[in-house]
Amino acid sequence: MKAIIIDDEKHVREGLLLLAEWDKHGIHTILEAEDGDQAIELITEHRPEIIFTDMRMPKRDGITLLKWLHASDLKSKTIVVSGYDDFEYMRNAIYYKSFDYILKPIEPDVLNETLDKAVKEWNEQAQSRKSQVEENRVMNEVKPLYWDRLFSSLCAKESMTTEMVEKVEQEFGIAITKLAKTVALIPIKPIVEKLFQGDRDLAFFTLSNICNELLRKQNDGVCFRNGNKEEELVILFWNDKNVTYLLEEIYSLIYQYSKLFTIIALGQKSRKINEAYESALQVYLKHTLLDQKKIVTHKDVKPRPLLHLLDHSNELKWAIRSGSGDQVRSQLEGIFSQMETGHALSLEQLQVWENQFELLRNNWLKEYEIQQQSPFYRGLDYWNEDGSFSFRKFKEEKAKEFSELIQTLSKAKYQREKNNMQQIEEYLQQHYQEDITLQDIADRFYLSREYISRKFKQDHGFTITDYVTNIRMEKAKKLLENPYLKIYEVAYGVGYGNEKYFSKVFKKHVGMTPNEYRHLQSNT
Fold first, then answer.
1. DSSP-based three-state secondary structure for 37
2. Which helix (H) or strand (E) holds 72?
3. 430-475 pLDDT tens trace
């Protein structure tokens, strides 16, 4: 701790130096000044905690010095020492918030009692200031987390309490419930992985600061981390006048910082935050990735069907069972070709693929009675170095997953094959449209007709003929739901060359003619 004694009389300064118990109060540096000008120079340089000053001095007097101290940002405790019991001096000392006023000649007890009080008060206030600084630091760190949590909850479900509305109005100066709002989503997974080496917190902190610095200029909205998603940055606009300009600026700033392209999905306006968010989410999930647009809206969503990997499960299963990588690659190339030309190549499509592949893989592992201890390879790196989507890399990643699966199954001690009747059942499901005879099945599976007939009925409760007929009737029902197909086309589609015979069999199994069934379905 430091102190300064300001007095034009040297003997007074020396007296204070001798009388005050400096060490007791932790004061180890004592400065001296002969007048106010010299004092200001020393105070500015050393910023002492305790100041003793005379009132009558040459050049700049005590009153002028008190005025300067009062106007400065110093937290020092000023003790006036004067030989004059002058009301004007005391009035100025009180007005400019000096700590105390001591008259000369100085009594040691009074001096040290006053010094003790001044030091204690300075320490208490210093601790209070330190606590306030720490509290402010914590608040500045916690505040963004609070708003992240609040706005994230509103994205999931619109349920703003009166307290929430008031806090938003207090913080942002808007009546949020009365404004139409727009949401934009920025997925940051490529940025997290390629620029921040997987550090999500640092990525969110950096990118949200970039966005909010721009949004705060005209109070257009707020950017926050969606706590319900792993890697999603959300921009909530409550001023829609500058949305397009701001998104282009944000895109440009993020690219300048990261040198990575990203997607910004902009939804449609709504007074409800959760509806505005859901609109942006649908744009994000359904837009075509191959278009490579930087900002996508609902106009970029094309109504194309999703490709379901489950529809190709039989072909893939037999290719995998063969243990041939070439057969699996051939099947995959056909599926990829269909995906690219006839389906929506969107993030939603990628999610459907991931989910259905995991389902198929688990089923096949269960069928082979394989307990996989180590995790499987997850081929999710289908983004170029600049952050844009790569269909080529997607195909490569999916091929790696299938290749690993083939190796896993091939390494198993045995391949658990389904029993003969299950294989025959699968064969019938795939060839029900053909004119299959019992002899054909016997020849294919190297079993006797008698054994097949007896065993199949034992397992299923009906004959092979009845089983095929049931399959044909179920398929026929689905085809009849299409009003543009003629009855003879339906009959031919399920393996009957004669329309009348088909109608007879259909009525026997369903209890009504094909036309009656179609009419019933159209009215339900």
1. helix
2. none
3. 999 998 899 999 988 888 899 889 888 888 888 999 999 999 999 9
Give the Cα separation of 95 and 103 in Å (integer): 18
**In the CATH scheme, what architecture does the domain 2-128 have?**
3-Layer(aba) Sandwich (3.40)
- Alpha carbon separation from 199 to 149, 189, 228 (Å, rounded): 20, 10, 17
Which secondary structure element, helix H or strand E, spans residue 332, and what is its range?
helix 325-342
CB of 236 closer than 8 Å to CB of 267: no
Q: Are 203 and 233 in contact (CB under 8 A)?
A: no
pTM of the predicted structure, to 2 decimals: 0.55
Q: Is the pLDDT of residue 512 over 90?
A: yes
Strand ranges in 364-425 using DSSP code E only, listed in sequence order: none
Give the Å distances, CA to CA, from 142 to 75, 154, 181.
29, 19, 25
Lateral strand order in the sheet of 29-33: 29-33, 2-6, 50-53, 77-82, 100-103
SS3 313: helix
Q: Which residues contact 78 (CB under 8 A, 6 or more apart)?
A: 51, 53, 66, 69, 97, 98, 99
**Helices 514-522, 464-480: inter-axial angle, 10-degree rounding:** 40
DSSP SS3 for 186: strand
Task: Tally the residues of the chain.
Answer: 524
Query: Tokens for 122?
Result: 């300075």
The answer to whether the Cα torsion of 118, 119, 120, 124 is positive or negative is positive
Backbone angles phi, psi at 287, to 5 degrees: -70, 155
The CA distance from 307 to 291, in Å, is 19
Q: 494-503 long-range CB contacts below 8 Å, 24 or more apart?
A: 494/432, 494/433, 495/432, 495/433, 495/434, 495/435, 495/468, 496/472, 502/476
The secondary element (H helix, E strand) that includes residue 51 is strand 50-53
Say which CATH class 165-300 falls into: alpha beta
CATH number of 420-522, picked from 1.10.3430.10, 1.10.10.60, 3.40.50.2300, 3.30.450.40: 1.10.10.60
Distance, CA of 172 to CA of 178 (rounded, Å): 14
SS3 at position 97: coil
Domain ranges for the chain: 2-128, 165-300, 309-411, 420-522
Name the range with the highest mean pLDDT among 146-160, 413-427, 463-477: 463-477
Cβ atoms within 10 A of the Cβ of 58, count? 10
User: What residue type is 382 in one-letter code?
Assistant: Y
Residue type present at position 464: I
